[in-house]
Amino acid sequence: xxxxxxxxxxxxxxxxxxxxxxxxxxxxxxxxxxxxxxxxxxxxxxxxxxxxxxxxxxxxxxxxxxxxxxxxxxxxxxxxxxxxxxxxxxxxxxxxxxxxxxxxxxxxxxxxxxxxxxxxxxxxxxxxxxxxxxxxxxxxxxxxxxxxxxxxxxxxxxxxxxxxxxxxxxxxxxxxxxxxxxxxxxxx
Length: 188
Description:
Elements: H1 2-20, E1 29-39, E2 42-51, H2 54-62, E3 66-77, E4 85-99, E5 104-109, E6 112-117, H3 121-128, E7 132-138, E8 147-158, H4 163-166, E9 175-187
Antiparallel strand pairs: 1-2, 2-7, 3-4, 3-8, 4-5, 5-6, 8-9
């Protein structure tokens, strides 16, 4: 009986400690400069990812976390009075891994692998993510005189959480930045 109380008390304190680790606010890392462009006959959604507050990200990286930055963009044809018509979907993924002993960060996306030192990480990431582009498909699907909507979801998720922690604590979010939805309407 005494052993059960100790066991339950331990797990309650452990759950309380884990729940104390709060995700970063949506303002610490955000999307700016969202726009649509014709790049070589392709619809391209361009944007910038901006690190406004480095504190939560730096703390997470110093603790050895690996994080995935995921942006998913959907293009819709807007119809008045009806549901929007889906045209295409594409995404951007970037993996951020830390090397706490070397005091540097490894950033991997479709443009390659880059290593940034911790002391200038915010400036380096803002420069690296200043002009991200997601190709959405052929420009032929865009018709003149029509209205369109781009819906972009953005989140930063921890990827190296051990299963023995994440399975029993399924109710805890491991996202550094919870999913944020951005909408952009344009007429052509």
